[in-house]
Amino acid sequence: MRRQIPLLITFVVGVIMLFEAFIPHPPFDQLNESLSITFDVLAAFAFVLGGGNLVKIHLAKISRSEPGWGYSAVTMTGFFAMLAIGLFKLGGPSGVRHALEAEGSWFQAAYDYCFLPLSATTFSLLAFFVASASYRAFRAKNREATVLLIAALIILLGRTLVGTALTETLPGSLELLFGALLATLAWEQYRSKRWIPLSLIGALGAFVLGRTLYGYLILAGGGDFYLLTVPDLVNWIMVVPQLAGQRAIMIGICLGIISMSLRLILGVERSYLGSDND
Amino acid sequence: MAQEKRPKMSDRLQAIDRRWIFLFIMLAVVIPLAFDLTIDEVATPEVQAIYDRIENLPPGSNVLLPFDYGPESEPELQPMADSYVRHLGRRKQKLFFMCLWPTGQAQTLKTVSQVLEQEFTDYSYGRDYVMLGFRPGGQGVIQVVVTDFRTLYQSDVEGTPIDDIPMMQNVKGLKDMDLILNISGGFPGLKEWIQFGGDRTGVPVAGGVTAVQAPLLYPYYPGQLSGIMGGLKAAAEYESLLIQGYSEAYGTDTERFAAIRRMGPQTLAHLVIILFLVVGNVAWFASRGSSRERLKSLEK
Amino acid sequence: MQLLCTLGLWLAVLALGPLLEARDAPSEAPSPPTRVQALDVPNDSGHAIEIRWKDSSDPNVHSYEVFRSRLPGESAAGDAGAPWMSLGTAGPGEESLTFSSAERGVRYSFKVAAATAEASADSEIVTGESRAQWFDWNKLWILIIGGAICFFVVLFIQLATRGRKLFVRKIAGLEAVDEAVGRATEMGRPVVFVPGIMDMDNVQTLAGLTLLGYVSRTIAEYDARLDVPVSRSLVMTTGREVVKQAYLEAGRPESYNEDMVHYLTDEQFGYVAGVNGMLLRDEPATCLYMGAFFAESLLLAETGNRIGAIQIAGTAMPSQLPFFVAACDYTLMGEELFAASAYLSGDPKQLGSLKGQDVGKLIVMAAIVLGSLASTVALWTGSESLQSVVDFLKLEMFV
Fold it and tell me: What is the three-class DSSP state of B132?
C-alpha cells in the first residue's frame, strides 16, 4: 500500500504532464507552472528537515567531542549567526516589507565580506585542479589519448594568442606539420605494404601539399587565399568534432531520459520509493 | 651513474607533487597582475554577433537582462555584464534586470551602481531601467513570465508596484522584449532561457556563460542562440569591440575593462599548462623507454 | 463677462491655430492600409492576435502604427481615458504585427494607421479575439517520433517480461562497483556516495538515487561504512528511504543508521568545501559521484584522487564529463547513468527499456544519414525537390 499510492500518483501526473506538452488549452497551459511552484513550496518547507539534520549531527559531534569537533563548532556558529541576522534583519530596517539586502544590513555585509570571498576562493581552486588533473590525464598512452592530447594542445594554444602569433609569422607551418605527420603515417603503411591506406594518405598529402604551394604562390601574388592558422583550427575543432561528439552525447542523454522517465511513470523502476515493508 | 639518474628524473617528473604545479600556476597568475600585462584581443564571430545585434537594435528597445550567477563566477561573468550594460547604455536601450538565482540580485546591483549610475547619469530608474529582482522557481519563473510578468512580479526590488513604473506600462510578458541577454553561471541559465524563453516567444536570445559551459551551448548557435560568449576570453573580446566602436569614449581608458586586464594571467596560466603537458609527456616517453631497457637487462 | 468670453475665444483660436495650420499643410494624407484583418494566432493558449494589412503603395509612408481598443477599467499612465492604445509600429513593407498579451476570449477592436512625415491615415476598424486550441500542431512530429520511441520502449519491456533474452553491452564502470566496495571493506574505510547537487525534480538525481539503492545493498552485504552527504533536503529524505530499504533487503537492518545520509547545505561551493573536508579527514577508499554536477565535479574528483580513492562517476552533464574522465577511474557517460540501475538490477523489464532506447537511436541515425545525404546531393545538383526534403527535416520534423 505504501508503494501503491505513490506509484499511482507518479503514473497519473506523469501521463498528464506528457499530454500537457501538446495541449495549449487551459487548464493544461498553467499545469507545468503550478506544479513547478508547488514543488518549490514543498522544497522550501523541506529545508527545515535538512537544517534540523545539520544541527543534530554537528551538535552531537560537539557534545561527544569527536575528532574534528572544532569544525562542527565553526559550522554551528555560522549557521546560528546567519539565522539570527536573517530572521531579525539585524543592522537594516526591520519588518516584512523591507528587503533583507537593504542598505547597512548585516546580512548584506556577511554576503559581501564572508560568503562572496569564500565562494570565489573555492571556485578558483578549479584553476589549480585543472592544471594538476590535465597534467595526469593528457598522456599519449595510446592512439585515442594522443588525438585527445593534440586537440587539447591546439585549443590551449588558440586560447593564448601564442598560436596566432606562431602561424602568422610562419604561414603554412600548420600545413607543413600536417604534411610531416602524413608522411610518417605513409611510411608506416608503405613498410607494412598496406596499399589502400597508403594511397588514401597519399591523396590527402598531395591535397595538403598542393594547397600549401598554391597558397604561397597566390599569397605572393596578393590573392585572398589564406593558409590554415591556429584560430581556424580551434574553430574547426570546436564546431565540427567537438560539436558532433557533444550532440551524440546529448541525443544519448535524451533517449536515456525518455526511457528512464517511462520506467518511472510505468512503475518499472521503483527503488527510489524506498521500503515497502513497514 | 649518469645513466641511472636519467630514468629517476623522468619517473620523478611523472609523479611530480601537485603542489609544484600549483606554485607555477600561482606565479603565472600573480606576475601579470603585478606588472599589468595585457594582450589585444580579436573578436570571434559568435561574440561579434552579439555586438552587432545590439548595434542594430533601434534606440528605446526593450532588453531583458537576467543575471543568473553568483560571486563564484563573478571574475568571468561580471565583465560581460558591465560590457553589455555599457553598450546598451550607449545605444539608449531600456533595460529590464531580473534574476533566477538568489545571488543574481547582488550582482545586478553591482553593475547598476558601478556602471549604469556612474557612466550614464541620464538614465533614470523606472523610465530607462528597472530591477525586477529575484523570484524562486528556476526555469518555472521563465515559463510564467513568458505570458505575464505580473503573475510573479507585483513589485520591483524596492517594493514599488509594477503598475507604477512607467517603463512597465507597455510590457506584459516576455514577448514584449526585443532581446534577451542572459548571463549565467550554471542552472538555470542560458540553456533554460533558450528552451523556455526564446523558443516559446521567438524573442532572440544571446548571452554569456563560463568557459566550462560554453561547449554545451554551441549546438544552439546560431539557430536558437544569436550569439554566445564563453568565459573571460570572450568577455575581453567584447571589451575590445567596445573600445574600438566607441573609441571617443573609451579610447584611452582601459582601466575599467576588467576582462582585458584579467586575460594576462589566463594566457600565462594556459602557457604553464601547455608547458606541463609537454614536460609530462616527455617524461612519460622517457620513463617508458627506460623501463623497457630495464626489462631487457632483467631478461639478460 | 464679455471680457471673459473674448479671452476664451482668443485662447481657443490660439490653441486651434497650429492644428488648423497642420490641416492646411500642402501634403495630403497617405492612403490608409487596406484589407486589415485580426486573426487568432493558432497553437497557443489564447493570448495572441495577429493584425495583418496590405502594404500601402504610397512611397511616403514611413511607418504603420497599430492600435487596439482599451478594455473597460484598463488604464495607462499619461493617456488615461483615450479609447485607443498603441501596440507598436511596423516599418514600410511590413504587413503584420502580433498583439501578444491579449486576454483570452475578449473581443478587441484594431485599427492600423499609415503615417508619412506630416500626416497619418487610419484604416477601417476590425475586431478579433484570441482563442485557446486543444492541440499544438507545431509539435505534431515531436508527438509522432516521441510516441514511436515510447512505443518501442514499452514493447521491449513487454517482450522482456515474456522471457526474451536481451543483450546489453558491458559497462566497465558498473562492473567495478563491487570491487570498489570490496576494497573499502578490506581497508576499513568508508564509501562516499554523492548524488549530485540538484533536487528531486531532476531525473539525474533520481538515476543517482536508484543507483544508491544497489550500491548500498552491496555495502550492507560487505558490512562497509557508507557516507552520503547531500545538498537538498528532499534528496536527504528520499536517500534515507532508499538506503534503509537496501539494508533491509540485505538482511542487515541493524546496521542502518539514519545519519548515513546527511544534509550539508544547498549552497554549491559551501557543499564542495564540506565534502572536500570530509574526504580529506575520513580518507574514504571509494568515492561514487552519480547525478547532476556543475563546477564542483573536478573540485570533488581531484580531491578524491589526491587521497587515492577509487572513483566512479556518472553524470549526464556533458560539460562536466571531461573533468570526471580526467580525474576518476571510471565514468558513466550520459545515457549510461540512466541505464545503470537497469544494468545492475538485471531486471528483464528494465533491460527491455534499454532495448527500446536503441530503436530510438536507430530512428535518429536514419534521420541523420538521410538528412546529410539529401543536403549534400542537393548542394551538388541544386535540386529543389531534394532541398525541400532537407527543409522539411530541418524546419518541420526536428525544430
Answer: strand
Find, among A124, A155, A180, the residue nearest to A241 by Cα: A155
Rounded Cα gap, residues B173 and A29, in angstroms: 15
> Which residues from chain C sit within 8 angstroms of residue A136, using beta carbons?
305, 326-327
Which of C 318-357 lie inside 8 A of A, CB atoms? Answer: 318, 321, 323, 325-327, 333-339, 341-342, 345, 347, 349-350, 353-354, 356-357
Residue C306, Cβ density class (10 Å: 0-12 exposed, 13-18 middle, ≥19 buried): middle
Helix (H, G, I), strand (E, B) or coil at B161: strand
Within a 10 A sphere around the Cβ of B235, how many other Cβ atoms? 32
Q: Using DSSP, how many helices (H) and how many strands (E) does chain B show?
A: 13, 6
Taking an 8 Å cut-off on Cβ atoms, the answer to whether A273 and C241 are in contact is yes
The residue ranges of chain B whose pLDDT is under 70 are: 1-8, 252-254, 290-300
ipTM associated with this complex: 0.84
Helix (H) or strand (E) holding C261: strand C261-263
Start-to-end C-alpha separation, chain C: 75
Q: Decide if A266 contacts A14 (C-beta within 8 A).
A: no
**Which cell goes with B104?**
543574481
Structural contact between residues B183 and B207, judged by C-beta atoms closer than 8 angstroms: yes
In the DSSP assignment, the letter for residue B228 is: E
Q: How far apart are CA C235 and CA C254, in angstroms?
A: 23
A269: amino acid identity, one letter: E
d(CA C305, CA C190): 15
Residues in contact with C347: Cβ distance below 8 Å, sequence separation at least 6, in sequence order:
A268
Query: What's the pTM value of the predicted model, to 2 decimals?
Result: 0.79
**Residue segments in chain C with a per-residue pLDDT below the cut of 50:** 13, 16-26, 77-78, 399
- More reliable by pLDDT, B67 or A171: B67
Q: Which residue has the cell 561573468?
A: B77
Torsion A234-A235-A240-A245 (CA) sign: positive
Helix, strand, coil % in chain A, rounded to nearest 5: 75, 0, 25
